């Protein structure tokens, strides 16, 4: 490497590093070097070398595609560590990737961008393997692959799949260079010879090393010592063991493994440690059972564990057991520190070794153990042992999911990094670690490493020893004196290491290398020709399970593929071959639901072949896209693209920032025109009835040059938080204005608005309307008619007054120029150019009369002007003082602001403003908000009658102008009258229309696919795209009026205010317009609005959907369940024309035979859910007095939630008719039925009374019902909807008879929809988020976290609350606040059930 290269590295490489680099440049190599010897620096030098070659290659051949380097690691924590190192030591674009970044959901376009932008990609091996399998990247695009900890390249590991499936299938000229790094190429208990040959064959590389003498000066080898202890022959179990056995009851079964392990720990660690491990198991199991209980409230989906009566018994038994053992004298908190008698000789030996380092100035050590539970209890011992106060210990274990025992502990990546950083800084000086600390992690060099448990493999030995690389460090292995095999095993490992290194140094080439264990044939690979994506035998099963995990489920049992393997006898030689079959859940299309394998010699191979075959069928059925990814984005669904407007590029689930739109309102049709002399000009008189309508304000006139006058009428608008009537009277006689007259009215218009606004009103503009004054004698409008002479009612004197320049109030002789000052407006040149209305003239006072100002700071007004206001001119001494008040602020949005204090003016400093005072005192102050409201009202009328193309049509929107104007008003613009209620109504209709459209248009799609498509159609970005395409934003009033920003409206959409709207607000407006049309035109009106707003893919006549569905729906007869159908019909009061619809509504997905013949209820439940939501919302919307938006939403959620629907289903007898074949579901339904029987005494009527329940909504106090019991009610509604030809009144009739009429009185008793509501949260209710944090503060815990996730595809925000890194509450909503609140409510249920935090047990806080 050149000197410049060394300079870029920032460090000086060592000679042996150059030696390995040279070999790596020549060929593929595996660098076998000790931990800390600088293998990663060699890889960075190789990356830089390949980058220079790549730059040279592209310079010589500009058309060639750029190739990059890939740095692979086996563990997630290593990704960020190695990415940081590579970035620090080379000047290349380095990017990193790991699973938590949700890379599996990234689109092809996103990956193309990533590949094109990066020069080095650092990632886990699994991600790179998936990139290759999905053809997001090809081997030909890579110049170098680095395998960190490459000894993992064995069997079915991702390293081996990358090499065998992709690297070795690539032509040799296109293969990248391979560089592997490891401290030991051995694996498991294989001999070093076979291990080296195997890894060389797998990685197509030669293993190399260097002389130990070259490395030793830089990486000191530790002193190796064996410390013996006397093993324990027999140990008695701890007292806690007997307590659990005696009082555990049903809980003992859950602790069986922990009890067994405690006996083993007694011998290995002693009774004190065994007791602590058992305590941890009690706490962990109790938390797990309670957490399972909590999860039943997550989105109304119960878990199997919580549905079993046996599980409920376990929860109660565990609570009693925990309470009992925690109060016993044997509990951790009630005990003193352990003594030598409480610990095993092995633990005592460890403690003595540590005590020897008491006087070590910079002590730093690691204790390696095999089990996570061992690490945890040893940490507790060390923290409590007298004499080890200098030790600051912590544990470092893996972050894998699950654990072998409840006593085990898992650490997440962030926790691992935090512990390692604490160790690096010296805040922690001893780590008790499992094998996770042996490899990869950048842990500082130690002066003591102890193998508490003997090394099993050569790799364990070499890597753990490598952590002790300080000068004079020590590597100690504890061996049982009674078991000589441990010391012999250690000696064998040491000897094998010497032989391995000698062999590596003497080997010059690959001889006798083995073929990769993972190298499929062409037959064993399925490749998609269009993309190059592939799946092999070795990856097929994992891909299949991933697909099934994404299928829709009601959370009763997991959806997984079902494999069956049977021997196929050979008549001649006996059963030597196997054949496998795989069956997927019923929600999978029938053509891809079943497949078989060919005959195979092994069971595992037959299973792989079956999985590969069904993946081919899933791809052919459209369940997997051409990248072999499960369909999770609607853009991948055939024939669906035209329904969704494009909303930008990027990954399907990428997090997007909310887009803010800026625009101005359009000019209404009635105001459009050009101001020219002698052109017909129309006058409209406007009168506002303020002061509760008792006295009108002064009238004002509006001139327009449109096609005709504005229509006569009365409307209401909100001013100062009260509704104000506005009366309009127009003349059908046009004005003929010459050029001078037109100029004069424009000057009045400009002067008026410059006086009342603080915005930049232009002197010349093409105004949309011009304001003119009206004579004050015009009081009786009834006598005017519509043919009055407009010229006779305009106050031409005031117009002429406005044409004059501002006149001085004081002449040169010191006399006032105006006798009636109350009739004029004064402009003060020294008071920030403000306008004033005169109250009184003090003729007997002068500027220098005794008149204290500002509490006596200034003795006279003249002195105040000179000193405080810095008035530069001499002040006339004979002029009077004027008492005035500032011109009131204009009405902004809904609030009036009035100045409170008087001002004293000197006439010399004032001019007369060219607008009379009576105009400024009248309508002028309300004029801006009046014009904005009138402009918006006219736009609402334009939208109704003209549509978006400004051409009047008979096919107009059916909403009233008032409702449409409200639908176009954002809450921030008018908190009183806005779109919120209409948006709720329209949203429910849009959901049923879209559900109906999808149900009829995609008859073979399952409920999960339909939900995916509906989410795409109704998400904010899709609705916004439709609105933007139509130019809807120009009709929306999105910002409150401000006198500093608003200007009079102009032609071509000028003037007004700049409105700022988020994409969500625009989407809400779309739904509100649908709601307005629904109010005015019923179902047909709402459907017509959907077609106009969202495109012609929808139908306004729903009977067309019925015809379309009839064409695709097969005629079926299914008479076996006819008696059941008749019972259902009697219960709901509806008789089916097509009985098979009712049967389908009762079939659960687990009943495979019925599903195959008739289908499951999932599709009907999808449709019925939307129908129920709409008819309930429509009913609540019509309640008088109207419910607020919040009350409407909360009340609806009470009526349609799963708990109440399950209650209704049970009372109707629907639950007993559900057809299923699932033990967990059967148990869940039975448990729910037992609750109902117990509460109601078997009386299926809402009129029963019971003292066991606290409130009228008694179903809320029961255990959560299984989702299927609520789904069946929605499915029945869906069946009724389909059977009626999509007449929404049919399901409404069922809802009215079965849900509203029988149960409404209970909601009235609960006060739903009122201030006393027991089902709607009040404003002063305790904040669950704050309560959750308050709980953690009381417990001195810092391990409660809320994590926000944005699902752009579904249009929701999800929040997860974790406690000690375990999810205890989940929630989702339209914004972060709602999602976080719901998650906190669920979390509180769990937190309130525990009386202490695990931090207290660990002594962390």
Describe the model.
- There is one protein chain.
- Helix 20 (537-549) packs across helix 21, helix 29 (980-1001) packs antiparallel against helix 37 (1162-1181) and helix 43 (1328-1338) packs across helix 44 (1376-1391).
- Residues 1-7, 294-308, 401-407, 508-514, 646-657, 1247-1252, 1315-1325 and 1400-1405 have low confidence and may be disordered.
- The protein is globular, with a radius of gyration of 41 Å.
- The protein has 1405 residues and is an alpha/beta fold.
- The strands form eight sheets. The protein has a seven-stranded parallel β-sheet. It has a six-stranded parallel β-sheet with strand order 8-13-12-9-11-10, with helices on both faces. Strands 20, 21, 22, 23, 24 and 25 form a six-stranded antiparallel β-sheet that branches.
- The chain contains 45 helices and 35 strands.
């Amino acid at each position: 490497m050149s000197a410049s290269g060394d300079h870029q590295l920032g460090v000086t490489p060592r000679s042996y590093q150059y030696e390995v680099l040279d070999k790596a440049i020549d060929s593929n190599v595996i660098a076998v070097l000790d931990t800390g010897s600088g293998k990663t620096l060699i890889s960075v030098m190789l990356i830089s070398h390949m980058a220079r070659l790549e730059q040279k290659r592209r310079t010589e051949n500009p058309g060639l595609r750029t190739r990059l380097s890939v740095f692979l690691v086996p563990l997630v924590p290593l990704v960020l560590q190695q990415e940081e190192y590579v970035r620090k030591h080379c000047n290349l674009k380095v990017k990193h990737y790991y699973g938590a970044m949700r890379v599996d959901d990234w689109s092809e376009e996103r990956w193309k961008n990533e590949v094109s932008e990066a020069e080095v990609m650092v990632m886990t091996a699994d991600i790179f393997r998936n990139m290759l399998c999905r053809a997001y990247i090809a081997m030909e695009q890579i110049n170098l692959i680095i395998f960190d900890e490459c000894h993992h390249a064995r069997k079915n590991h991702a390293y081996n799949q990358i090499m065998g499936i992709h690297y070795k299938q690539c032509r040799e000229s296109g293969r990248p260079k391979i560089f592997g790094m490891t401290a030991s190429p051995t694996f498991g208990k294989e001999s070093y010879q076979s291990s080296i040959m195997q890894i060389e064959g797998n990685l197509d590389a030669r293993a190399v090393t260097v002389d130990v003498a070259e490395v030793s000066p830089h990486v000191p080898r530790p002193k190796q010592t064996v410390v013996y202890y006397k093993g324990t022959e027999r140990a008695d179990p701890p007292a806690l063991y007997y307590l659990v056995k005696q009082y555990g009851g049903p809980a003992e079964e859950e602790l069986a493994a922990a009890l067994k392990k405690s006996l083993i720990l007694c011998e290995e660690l002693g009774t004190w440690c065994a007791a602590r491990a058992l305590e941890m198991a009690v706490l962990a199991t109790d938390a797990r059972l309670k957490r399972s209980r909590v999860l039943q409230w997550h989105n109304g989906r119960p878990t199997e564990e919580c549905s079993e009566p046996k599980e409920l018994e376990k929860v109660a038994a565990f609570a009693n057991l925990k309470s009992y053992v925690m109060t016993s004298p044997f509990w951790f908190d009630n005990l003193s520190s352990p003594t030598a008698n409480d610990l095993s000789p092995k633990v005592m030996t460890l403690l003595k070794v540590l005590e020897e380092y008491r006087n070590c100035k910079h002590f730093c050590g690691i204790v390696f153990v095999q089990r996570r539970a061992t690490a945890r209890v040893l940490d507790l011992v060390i923290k409590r042992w007298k004499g080890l106060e200098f030790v600051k210990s912590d544990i470092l274990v893996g972050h894998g999911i699950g654990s072998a025992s409840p006593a085990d502990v898992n650490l997440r990546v962030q926790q691992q990094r935090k512990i390692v950083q604490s160790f690096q800084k010296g805040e922690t000086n001893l780590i008790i670690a499992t094998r996770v600390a042996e490899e990869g992690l950048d842990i500082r060099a130690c002066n003591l490493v102890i193998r508490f448990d003997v090394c099993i493999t050569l790799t364990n030995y070499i890597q753990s020893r490598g952590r002790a690389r300080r000068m004079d460090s020590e590597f100690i292995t504890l061996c049982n004196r009674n078991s000589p095999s441990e010391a012999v095993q250690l000696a064998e490992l040491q000897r094998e290491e010497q032989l391995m290194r000698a062999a590596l140094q003497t080997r010059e080439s690959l001889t006798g290398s083995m073929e990769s264990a993972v190298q499929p044939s062409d037959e064993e690979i399925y490749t998609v020709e269009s993309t190059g994506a592939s799946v092999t035998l070795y990856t097929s099963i994992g891909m299949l399970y991933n697909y099934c995990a994404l299928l829709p489920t009601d959370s009763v049992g997991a959806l997984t593929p079902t494999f069956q393997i049977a021997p196929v006898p050979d008549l001649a030689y006996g059963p030597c071959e196997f054949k496998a079959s795989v069956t997927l859940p019923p929600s999978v299309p029938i053509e891809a639901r079943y497949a078989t394998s060919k005959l195979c010699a092994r069971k595992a191979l037959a299973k792989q072949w079956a999985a590969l075959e069904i993946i081919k069928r899933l791809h052919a059925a459209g369940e997997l896209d051409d990248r072999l990814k499960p369909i999770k984005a609607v853009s991948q669904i055939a024939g669906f693209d035209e329904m969704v407007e494009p909303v930008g590029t990027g990954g399907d689930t990428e997090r997007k920032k909310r887009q803010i739109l800026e625009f101005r309102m359009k000019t209404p049709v009635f105001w459009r025109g050009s101001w020219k002399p002698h052109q017909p000009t129309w006058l409209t008189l406007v009168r506002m009835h303020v002061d509760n309508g008792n006295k009108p304000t002064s009238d004002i006139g509006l001139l327009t040059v449109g096609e005709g006058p504005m229509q006569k009428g009365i409307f209401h608008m909100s001013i100062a938080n009260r509704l104000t009537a506005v009366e309009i009277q127009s003349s059908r006689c046009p004005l003929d204005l010459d050029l001078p007259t037109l100029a004069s009215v424009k000057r009045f218009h400009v002067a008026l608005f410059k006086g009342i606004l603080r915005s930049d009103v232009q002197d010349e503009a093409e105004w949309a309307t011009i304001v003119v004054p009206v004579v004050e004698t015009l009081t009786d409008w009834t006598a005017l008619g519509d043919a009055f002479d407009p010229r006779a009612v305009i106050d031409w004197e005031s117009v002429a007054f406005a044409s004059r320049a501002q006149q001085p109030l004081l002449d040169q002789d010191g006399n006032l120029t105006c006798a009636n000052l109350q009739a004029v407006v004064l402009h003060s040149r020294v008071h920030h150019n403000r306008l004033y209305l005169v109250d009184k003239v003090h003729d007997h006072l002068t500027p220098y009369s005794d008149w204290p100002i500002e509490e006596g700071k200034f003795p006279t007004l003249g002195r105040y002007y000179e000193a405080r206001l810095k008035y530069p001119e001499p002040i006339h001494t004979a002029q009077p003082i004027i008492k005035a008040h500032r011109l009131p602020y204009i009405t902004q949005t809904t609030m009036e602001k009035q100045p409170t204090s008087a001002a004293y003016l000197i006439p010399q400093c004032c001019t007369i403003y060219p607008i009379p005072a009576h105009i400024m005192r009248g309508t002028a102050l309300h004029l801006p908000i009046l014009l904005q409201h009138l402009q918006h009202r006219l736009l609402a009328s334009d939208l109704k009658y003209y549509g978006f193309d400004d051409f009047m049509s008979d096919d107009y929107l059916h909403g009233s102008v008032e409702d449409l104007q409200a639908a176009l008003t954002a809450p921030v613009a008018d908190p009183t009258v806005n779109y919120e209620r209409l948006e709720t109504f329209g949203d429910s209709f849009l959901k049923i229309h879209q559900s109906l459209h999808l149900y009829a248009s995609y008859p073979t799609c399952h409920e999960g696919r339909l939900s995916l498509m509906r989410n795409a159609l109704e998400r904010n970005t899709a609705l916004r795209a439709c609105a933007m395409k139509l130019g809807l934003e120009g009709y929306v009033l999105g910002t409150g009026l401000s006198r500093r920003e608003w200007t009079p409206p102009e032609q071509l959409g000028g003037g007004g205010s700049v409105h700022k709207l988020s994409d969500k607000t625009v989407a809400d407006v779309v739904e509100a317009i649908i709601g307005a049309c629904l109010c005015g035109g019923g179902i047909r009106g709402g459907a017509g609005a959907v077609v106009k707003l969202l495109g012609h893919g929808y139908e306004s006549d729903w009977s067309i959907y019925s015809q379309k569905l009839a064409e695709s729906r097969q005629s079926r007869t299914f008479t076996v369940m006819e008696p059941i159908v008749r019972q259902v019909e009697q219960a709901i009061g509806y008789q089916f024309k097509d009985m098979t619809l009712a049967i389908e509504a009762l079939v659960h997905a687990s009943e495979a035979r019925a599903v195959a013949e008739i289908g499951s209820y999932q599709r009907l439940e999808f449709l019925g859910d939307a129908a129920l939501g709409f008819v309930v919302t429509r009913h609540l919307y019509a309640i008088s007095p109207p419910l607020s938006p919040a009350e409407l939403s909360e009340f609806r959620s009470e009526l349609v939630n799963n708990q109440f629907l399950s209650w209704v289903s049970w009372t109707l007898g629907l639950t007993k008719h559900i057809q299923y074949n699932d033990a967990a579901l059967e148990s869940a339904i039975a448990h729910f039925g037992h609750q109902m029987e117990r509460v109601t005494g078997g009386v299926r009527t809402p009129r029963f009374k019971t003292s066991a329940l606290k409130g009228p909504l008694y179903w809320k106090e029961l255990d959560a019902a299984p989702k299927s019991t609520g789904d069946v009610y929605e499915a029945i509604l869906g069946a009724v909807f389909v059977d009626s030809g999509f007449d929404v009144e049919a399901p409404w009739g069922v809802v009215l008879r079965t849900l509203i009429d029988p149960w409404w009185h209970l909601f009235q008793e609960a006060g739903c929809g009122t201030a006393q509501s027991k089902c709607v949260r009040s404003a002063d209710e305790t904040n669950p988020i704050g309560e959750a944090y308050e709980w953690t503060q009381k417990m001195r815990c810092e391990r409660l976290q809320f994590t926000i996730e944005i699902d752009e595809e579904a249009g929701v925000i999800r929040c997860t609350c974790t406690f000690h890194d375990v999810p205890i509450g989940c929630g989702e909503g339209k914004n972060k606040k709602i999602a976080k609140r719901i998650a906190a409510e669920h979390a509180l249920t769990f937190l309130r059930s525990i009386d202490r935090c695990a931090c207290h047990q660990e002594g962390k806080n």
